[in-house]
Every structure is written in C-alpha cells, then in structure tokens.
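P.,

For your records, the input lines for the assembly:
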Amino acid sequence: MSLLKLEGIGKNYFGNQVLQDVSIEIKAGEIHGLVGENGAGKSTLMNILFGMSVIHSTGGYEGKMWIEGEEYSPMTPLEAMERGVGMVHQEFMLIPGFTITENVKLNRENTKPSLISKILGKSLEFLDFDNMEKDTIESLNKLNVEMDHKQKVAGLPVGYMQFVEIAREIDKSNLKLLILDEPTAVLTESEAADFLKIIKKLSELEIAVLFITHRLDEIKEITENITVLRDGQMVSSLKTSDVTPIDIAALMVGRDVKIKKTNKRAFDEDTPIALKVENLKVLMPGELVKGIDLEIKKGEIFGIGGLAGQGKIGIANGIMGLYETSGKIYKNGVEMKNNDPGAMLDNNVAFLSEDRKGVGLLLDEPIDLNIAYNAMESRGRFFNKIGPLTQVDKAAVLQNANEMIKLLDIRCRGPKQHTRSLSGGNQQKVCIARALTFEPEVLLISEPTRGIDIGAKELVMDTLVRLNKEKNLTIIITSSELAELKQISDRIAIIAEGKLNGIFTPDTDDVIFGLAMSGENVEVVANG
Amino acid sequence: MDKIKAIYNKIGFPRFIITLLLFLFIGIAFFLDLSLASMFTDILKRFGMNAILVLAMVPTVQSGSGINMNLALGVILGLIGCLVSMELGLAGWTGFGVALAIAIPLAALAGYLYGLMLNRVKGQEMTVGNYFGYSVVSLMCIFWLLAPFKNPQLVWAMGGTGLRTTLTMDDSFGKVLDNFLSFEIMGVTIPTGLLLFFALCALIVYVFSNTKTGLAMRVSGSGEKFAISSGLNVDRYRILGIVISTVLAATAIIVYSQSFGFLQLYMAPLYVSMPAAASILIGGANLRKASIAHVIIGTLLFQGLLTVSLPVINIISEGSMAEIIRIVISNGIILYALTRKEAV
Amino acid sequence: MIVPIVFIIICAVGYYFSGLAFDFVMVEMFFRLSRNLLLVASLIIPVITGMGLNFGIVIGAMAGQIGLFIIANFGIGGMTGITVAMLASVPFAVVFGYLVGQVLNRAKGKEMITSMILGFFANGIYQLIFIVMAGKIIPFSNKDLLMDSGVGLKNTIDLVSIRKSFDTWLFGDIVNFPVMPIVFVAIILLLINRFFKTKVGQEMRAVGQDMHIAEVQGIDVDKTRLKAIVISTVLAAWGQIVYLQNLGTLNTFTNHEQVGLFAVAALLIGGASVEKATWKEALIGTFLFHLLFIVSPPAGQKLMGDAQIGEYFRVFVAYGVIGISLMLHAMEKRKKTEDRLRLTIKEK
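Structure tokens returned:
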C-alpha cells in the first residue's frame, strides 16, 4: 500500500486553473522528486498537501488524497502535522534567539507538572529541559550530524540551520512524509552533498520525502521516482533510473511553441552597442547577480531568462541602480554612475519593474500621475512656469493620460482612478504608458506578463514589438516564461546561479534551454 | 443600499460620527435657545487659531513620515520668536513680523536636524517623535526658568524666577490678526485677518505641493520604492516635509497666541500635537494621505464640536463633560487610525 | 549597560550636591522600592512577548483604583481591605487587559504608540464614569466619596483605613520597614522569572522573537499576546494598590496618569530595552530612577538656586530616556534587517 496517494488534485484561483488533475503515489521511505518551471504548480501542490490557509481561503481544492489508505484533507498545517506530514520551507522557520533544542522542540516541548499547573492548567507546566535535550540529541544522531544542542541558532551556518529544521521534523514521532521545498538552493556545494546524504538517511528511517528542486543532477542522484509538472498539469510520473537529465529538462519546458518571429534580424558588427555591462554584481536579496558581462545592440530585443532565484531579475534592477551594484555599465559607450536611478533616467534608460505594485506604481495615486511622473521628474515635462515657480500642468497630464488610455485600451473608470483598483493587466498597461510618455532609448522590462490575462498579454507584447520597430527602441526583457522570450527576442541570455550560462537564438531547442536553466554546462550556441 | 454604503465609505467613520455629533449638538443648542451667533463667532475664531497647527500635519504625512507627533518643537521656537519680539517691546504688525522672522529660520534649522534623526527611525516616527517632543518640552522648561529675559512683562515680578507661565500679549501684538478688517454680520464676528492668514498659509502649502519639488515630496511619501526608482532622494524629501511642518507649527503658535491673547509656556506645548492629529484624521486623512481639504473639514468639525458642546453640556450636564468629550474623541480617532489595516 | 552607568554617575553627583543624609536616602529608597517596583515589574512580560513597553498599564492602575473605590465604599480596612481590593480589581483588570490586547493585536508593530494613546483614551472613559456617572448611574453607598452634589467622585479619596496596612503587616511592631510589600514583590518577580520556563512562557518568548515563525509552528500568536497583556494589567492593578496603600490617599483623577511614563522610564534606566527586560533591570532601574527623584530637587536648589529646576530635570530625564531608547531600538531594528541581508549574501 502506498503511503500517500493523490488523485485528480486540482486548484482553481479565481477562475484561473493553476493545477489540474495531478495524481501521485508515494511509498513509505521513497524519495520522490517534483520538478517543474516557475508557475508550473509546484508550490500550489505543496500548499494543498500541507493544509495552508491560502488554499482554503480561496475555495479549497479538487480531487482526493489518502495517507495509508485513510482519506486526508488537511485544513491547517497543524492538522497536516498531526497526520504525519512535515515541511521544511524555503525560508528558515527557526527562532534565532533560541537554542537548537528549543527550536527542535518548539511548541512540542516536554513538560512536567507542578503544583501551579495542577490548579491553573496544563499550559503552566514547566519545561522539561532534560527530556527536551535528550530528544534533540536523539534526532540529531539519527541524522548523523554533530551539533551542540545548547547553541543558539543565530550563529549557525546556513547548512546547519537546515539540519535543525529537519531534526525538528523527525522529532515529531509520527513523521511519515517530509516535504522539502528547494532545500539546497541556499547551500554551498559541499553542504548540499552532506544534505543529500541526510535525505537518504531519512529514507532508511522509512520516512518518505517529497523533494522539490531545480537541480536536475540532484534529482537524478537521489530520487526513486519523479513527477514533472508543466503549466499546472502533470506531464508524467516516471522512474528516475529510466531517464537522463536531458529528458527531464525536455519534459519540464517542452511545450509546443510556435515561433511567431517572422523577420529574424541579424545585427552586424557595425550596429552600435546601446548598453554594455562588465562584471555586473548586484546585491538583490534572493536574486543575486555574481558578475555578468553583456552587450546589447541598438534596436535589439534582448531576452533574459532563467529560473526563479537565479539572478535574472537582479540584472535590470542592478543596471537601474535599485540594489547595491558594482561593475561597469556603459550606455552608448559612456560609463554610467552606479546606484543612481535618476542618472539612468536622465540618460534615457527606463525600467518597468517586476514588482509592479511596489516599484512600478503609486497605488494610491491616480492613473494620470502614474503615467506622467517619469517624464515630469526627469524631463521637466507637464509643468507650467510662472516666473521662478513651476506648477503642475494638470490639464496636460490629464490629456496625456486620456490619449494613453485610448492607445493602450486601459480599462478604467477614468484617468483619475487610483491604480490600486485596476486589474493586473491594466496596471501593466499604465506602466507601459509611463514608458511611452517618457520615450526612452533603452527600456528594461521585467516579467511583463506576470499576473495578467491573455488578452492584455498579447497587447503588451505587441506594443513592445511595435515600439521596437517604430522607434528603434532597445528592449531588455526579463521573463520567467521562455515562450514569451522566444516570441519576441533577438537573443536570449540564460542566467543560472547568478552567472551567465549562455546566450541563445530564439529558435534554439527547448531542451537546451531547459538544461541551461538548470545550470548544466551547455555550449554557447549563439553570440551576437 | 450599496449606494448608501459607498457614500458612507467615502465619508469614512470619523467624519461621519463627528458630523453627526456636531449636528446633534447644534440641534440641542437651537432647542435650548442658545445664541447661535456667538457660537459661530467662536467656531470661526477657533478655526482660525487652530487650522495652521493642523495644516502642519500635511507635509509630514505627504512626505511619508506620518502624523507629526512633535509639533511641540516648532511651537517652542514660535514661542521664542514671540518672547524675543515682546522682550524688545515691539507691538502690532512689527511685533508679529519680528516674531515670525525670528521663529521661522530657527524652526527650519531645528526641523532639519529633527528630520535627520527621524530618517534613522523609519517606521517608528510617531512613537519616537512623541517622546522626543516630550523631552524637548521638559528641557525647555529649564530654559524658561533660566533664560535671560528682562522685560518685567515677561518675568515673575517677585517670588519666582524665570518666565511667567502665562504671558499676556495685550501690550504687544495680541489680536493683531483677529482685528484686521474684522466685521460683524448677523451677530457673527468674522476675524478676517485671522482667516486670511490661514488662507495664505494654505495657499503656500498648496502651491508648493504642485511645484516639481513639492510633487517629488508627495511621490516620496506615496510610494518609497517608486520614488527611488524615479531617481528621487527620498530621505531628503522626508526632511523637507518635516522642515515645512516645523516652520508651520512655529507660525501656527504665533497666530494662535495673538488670537488667544496669551503666551503659554512650560508644559503647554505638550498638548498641541494630539488635537491637531485628531483634527486632520477627522477631516478624512489617514496616516499616509492628507490634503488641505482634510485640514479645513477636520478643523471645522473638531473645533465646531468642542465649541458647540461646551455651552450645551454646561446646561444639561457637568461642566467637565466637554473636556471629557475632547479627550475621548481626539484619542479615539487617533486609535481608530492606528488600528486600521491600511495604516502601515 | 551604558544607561545604568550614566545614571549611577548622575545620581552620585546629585547625591553629593543634595547634602542629604545617607540614612535618610536609604530609608526613603526602601519605601520607594517597596511601592513602585511591582508597577515596573508589570512591564516585563509584554516586553518579552514582543509587544514593547506597555504604556497601557495606566489602565491596570485604573483597575487597581476601582478595587480601592470598592473597599472605600464598603469601609473595609486593614489587610482585609487590601486583600479585597486586590481580588476585586482582578476581574476589571482581566477585562481591561483583554480589550487592550485586542486593540494591540490590530496594531502590530505600533504597539507602543497605540498603548499610549489607549491610556489617554481610557482616561477619558474613566473620567466619564467617575465624574459623570458615579452616584448617578453607579451607586455609591458611602456618600463621603462623592462630591457635595451627589454626582461624581471627589478629587481625593481618603484611604486612611488601609494606610500602610500592608507595609506594617506582621512585622510592623518589630521594624519600621515595609517588609511584606518587599516580600510580595520579590515573590512576584520570582514567579515572573519561573513563568518563562513554563509552556506558555516559552510560547511568549517565541512570539516575542518572531511572530511569523511562531505562527507557522502552530502557536496561536494573538492569544499569546492577549495573555501577556492581561497578566501585565493585573500586575499593574496590584502594583497601584500597593503604591496607594503606602500613600494613604487616592487622587482620583491623577494618580494613574503618570504610572506608565514613570514605570517605563525606570525600567529603561535599569538597562532594559524595548525587546529585553528582566527582574534585574526592573530592580536597578527603579532604584536609580527614584534615587534621582529624591536627590534632584535639593541638588537643583543648591546648584541653580531653584528646586523647580531639579524637578524639571527629572521630568526631562524620564522623557529623554524613553525617547532615546526608543530611537536606539528603531535604529537597531533597521540595522538588523540590513545585517540579515548582508548575512545571506555572504553565505551564498
């Protein structure tokens, strides 16, 4: 009998089917890999398995689950834990000021009764540190790791924190299934190797592991079976020994992509370089860039792709100077000042951020100001001059907004509506309208279609292509969606682990892209 | 029903409840045959006295450092302006002008230094500002005791050292604004100069907020990340907001004192921030958004309520009830703003 | 550590100039510790639970005063009176604490300013009840407590029947020290210390360190915070009763007002912070703050020729210490997030 069985699991967020008909079986002690691109539905599946409140506050899920033959439908993480399901989150859930013991036993402390607790209730029982320590040492021993259980977590290396998390999970005496969400993403190579050993150890303890990672070599190394998700659908569930990393990559990304690009353009040596970066390093948390060189030609549409957390998002943010950046940035051959967004704007480089609601928009200001602001601040447009005084030319701001609303078909109640209440697609159109009003020479745009509906998607992409053609706008587009990059880019750079892993032409085979994204060494197929 | 709900949401709970109370009290006052004319005279006067203090909240909210719990800083410098002007024996417009001329640069400097500090405690401005204000006030108490003022009008004649607690301004520039072009209509006295001066301050704030710099300040407050990515130095605009607020507070206390006829020293400046904060919140502002309309509506409602409730309550209940109402309303409204989800 | 040291120096200088006799100061300090320490101690639990300095103990003090109104009304004196007052104040303190906790749970991250404003707000309600309603809606059988009009409590209420009853209990004939209040507060401090080694105490520590993680590990964060504030409020109510039995009179409308300010200042002077406080800081801080109380007026008189200056200096110190430590806390918090960022970068 299988330990965990899923049948026909699906999830619908407000009419958007993010997960559909997933069926998996996991045996006791099995290490099961779960792979898929960003947005393939991995985290949704985990959230369902762990009873997270986001699932239930948005209408629950479809399908059925069983643990050891008994039906399982957790409403809270607590319920999941009671049924023997544990989870190690991507971010650490440890209290830094507590010792290892206190963390391992958090909210499951051993207690002993006292006179007061007998009168006033169990919650006033004293902590039984001796037994807590004994249990902790036992759990750590099971994992074969040596740590001082009295040490505070705050000073531990990251790898050890991960061990503490796992020790906490196996200390739950009934643990049957452990979900690991990208556990090796924060580890160094040697730490990751140790970590994999520990996972094997768990398997020997008859604990099943659902292992989520993007490192295909790891998957290949330790899992028995693999489930591949793509666009919320289960592509296949197969035996690890039957496949190669290349096969897995192909399954991950292999959708039918019709390359619409008709007029493939060649940029020759003479085309001037619009933007060039040398040894670009960006301290963007979660998206570190660790030294990248790029040259982007004038009039080019340059795509940047890669998996989440690998640094692709950091590049545009670094060029714009929104996070601490080092290295050299040249625009039309002139070196730019680092870490100065104003200077970049003054040099006609505009940025539409992936963080639309934080960086991209003033949510509590009207549409018209949102559209006009870059042009106002950096170009001094839309102001009336009265002697030495400048005053906002409200009529011009409004008129500009009205034109943009018509041009981009922004669905709103009018130019004075606050952007907070717009849909994702219309918010993105407002951002694009701002870039149109600003009229940059180079446009950096990140995740342009994330969270917006299909109709708006097409319009956004078409607008980018049109701007590129009509105004010879150089565009650097960063996206998690490979299809999107292939659709409009002239070249596509793939970033893995903060470094450039190759620049490819859009007609490159998807398998190659899949491998490149997973950090495999792929021969560079295209270069200028 | 939905429509009513939408209108209610637009008005907001504070404005709604205070307006309701105000009309209730006006109704009772009418019923009790109280002189509405003298009430409206009072409301106008108190509006003029307090509106600039409330206006001083606008720049800090707009620039993103929230409600300015440290109006006391500006108020103290305004008081120093008044004291120097009175020490010199100046009266009338000269006295008023000199007080302003001394207070404003001092307030600008103090606001700048205070702004530097507030930028290091982002997110905790209200708490830190409040206690910073309190300690400045108590430190200044020692200053009032030791300050080298000589004018017998200002210092205790005998039996005490230092400046008096309350100083009459009859011989200096008391009422100089109130009496300017004031006239009576249907029994209501209109303090034209006072209202005009507020209008001037409000106009300056309005015009400034529509200049390129002013717009940048508002954008800094509205969305910090957006502002940074637009090339703005957010910290600098936050300081600017605090400087303007402090200067307005200094101006406000000079205006307030001349209208009141007395200068109040020692612990008095402690009590300016709360009512001003309550007023602007009643006017429809929140911790992130404030406009001149909020100032006008809020001050009118709050001062109106205080003015009307006093005589009404004196008749139907204890005299101290009016004070209690002031405490409950002003703090209740601030609590309401603090516990709302969007109050980040 | 720097804060207590600075205050030891200030107090030493003040003591030197005050010209007060050592014996007098020590006796005075003993009394002041016995009557103030409990109020300061009531702040510890919310600090550990991550709710900052609970200025809302003003509301606990009100509950204590309600207990005293009750015994004054029924004329219960002596230790019986104090015991009844303490017991009677508990239900009020629990309800008030629950309400304060509810409000603070809706203002996470802004607990301190909110609890302070809440104190002002409650003061208004308190006045409404005891000025306007007392005698009218709320019956008082002892008309001596009421104003001549029969409505509203008098500004001062005589507590002569319990004056120093607790101070002199059991040992009154032997020594002239408040032995039992000291023993009482010592026991409370010990219990607070032990409390953090219980299950619920551990939950509070966890919530205080990181609400999000505590929640993920299945701890009911809001409920834990409520409990912390309720305990704090009850302790403050008792603290106020101990304090007022020593004074022997109750200023109906002013006694509670400064409770939060002075207790917070004392705790901070002892070296506590917004996030960390133990009985040691409470003890040291109460001692130093009240030493300053005793020595600053005569020192001000000697140095500046005006006792008032010493008085204002003391107030300035109270506010200043709170202001500065809140500022340092806010700065540290910002630095910490930056450090954490750097940490992850280094490790990667």
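Two observations worth noting. Residues 92-118 of chain B form the longest helix (27 residues). Chain B has a mean pLDDT of 87.

Regards
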